[in-house]
């Protein structure tokens, strides 16, 4: 049953325009950031300052993408039909989460690959292949946190317009908080602010875009822990949620 549900989820996602629009917008953002770095600086910019820079917009784009996928499941009655045909809500939640995770990985991969290829010909190469691979993997774990929290919020809210507004608002709040904390850390290396910065996925994104993470292993552990917590809480909530 799980494979059938997952196949149905993936079929629906790959036949929706939202996935392709998300990839399109991320590529547009990538081009914009590349042009900004290429034209705004009077000196040769290292590729380390560019190759992950578009990920600044990733959380915002994914917040909309997941909101649309999940809320349409509620609006069109697919969630209710799944519960009627298979009353295993835990399975339904996990397959939905996995399908959204796969879609989010695709957006991440396309953006990262496009930015890497274009940047390779425009900027000085000052990183090794190993450095890139390590930070690429780091970015995937950051993505887990974004997907975990945005999927949970979308399940809780249900309605399309509300889900988009709340998830986008949450993404912007996380982004602004990361910017503020980053500024504070530049003047005072406060341990509490550093901890809050590290558990904020946009705080970790700032470290990804600069390719300067003080403790990547610790950050990855935090990401895995948060993803598991969001998933457990989401399953417990979904088991009790009244689906009309």
Following the backbone from N to C, one meets helices and strands in this order, namely: HHHHHHHHHH
Oligomer: single chain
Question: Could you say which structural class the secondary elements and strand pairing correspond to?
Answer: mainly alpha
β-strand number: 0
Number of helices: 10
Mean pLDDT, to the nearest integer, reads: 90
Catalogue the unreliable spans.
none
Descriptive overview:
By secondary structure, the chain is an all-alpha fold. It is 81% helix and 0% strand. The protein contains 10 helices and no strands. Helix 6 crosses helix 7 and helix 6 packs parallel to helix 10. It is globular and about 60 Å long. The protein starts with a helix and ends with a helix. The model has no long low-confidence stretch (mean pLDDT 90).
